[in-house]
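Technical note accompanying the year-one report. For the benefit of new consortium partners, we illustrate the data format agreed upon in the data management plan: each record pairs a sequence with a C-alpha cell string. No post-processing was applied to the example shown here.
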Amino acid sequence: MNAEALARTIESGEAWYFSRSRRRLWRKGETSGHVQRVVEMRIDCDQDAVWIKVEQVGEGACTRRRSCFYRAVPLGKAPTKSLTLEFRDAEKAFDPHKVYGGKSE
C-alpha cells in the first residue's frame, strides 16, 4: 500500500493497493467482484507497516485460493538461494477464466 491506498482503505472499508507492475492504484475486486472488506487494521510501533484482516467476499483471492498467503516459510533451516516454500491451504477456490475472462486481477 502507498499513502493513497491506505487512505482509501480507511475511508471505504475495502482493501485498496498500489501495484508497481500496473503503476496504478486499484481496489481488490474491481475486476473479479472478489472484494476484501476490512475487518481490522493495525499499525506497528514504528508506524511503517500495516496489517489488515479482511473478509474475502467472493470465491477467493487473486491467487485462485481463499487467501493470498498460502505459502509458508520453513523455519529452523538456514536460508539458501533456492529456499522451498511450503504450500498450506493451497486448494484452488475458483476458475480464473470464468472470473477474469482471461485477465488476471
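Partners are asked to follow this layout when depositing records. Strands lie at 16-19, 24-27, 36-43, 50-56, 71-72, 86-87.
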